[in-house]
Amino acid sequence: MKMEMTSLLGLSLYTLNGTYVGRIKDVVIDSSEGAITSLAVVDVNESLFDVRGKGVYLPYRWITAVDDVALMVHPVRVSRREEETEEEEADFRAAVR
Predict the structure, then answer these.
(1) Tens digit of pLDDT for each residue in 50-82?
(2) Which residues are in the PRC-barrel domain (predicted)?
C-alpha cells in the first residue's frame, strides 16, 4: 500500500465490521526499511482497548485499507500489559503531542 504518510494523520480508524477504533495521531517509521511499523491512535474505543494513557500503538500490518477512513482487522480486546512502564507511557505521550 503506497501513500503519503501524512495522509494517515487524523483519519478515523474502524474495524472491517464498522466498529470505531480511534483516530490516527502519528506514524512510527523503521528508518532502516523506510516503512511504517505502527500507528499512534488516540480517542480510543475503550470497549476494544484497556488503556489508561492517551492512546495505543497498533501494528501497521493490521491496516487493510486507507481512503477517507482507515480500516483494520478486528482485534480481540487488548489489555494493558502489567509490565508496561511509565517510560513507555511517557514515550507515547511525547509522540502524540
Answers:
(1) 777 788 999 999 999 888 887 887 665 555 554
(2) 5-70
Per-domain residue ranges of the chain:
5-95
Strands 20-30 and 12-15: antiparallel
Which helix (H) or strand (E) element contains residue 90? helix 86-95
In the numeric block, which cell numbers belong to residue 46? 475503550
pLDDT digits (tens, 9 = 90+) for 12-29: 999 988 999 999 999 999
Contact by Cβ (8 Å): 36, 5: yes
Say what the pTM is: 0.71
Residue 8 and residue 66 in contact, taking contact as beta carbons nearer than 8 Å = yes
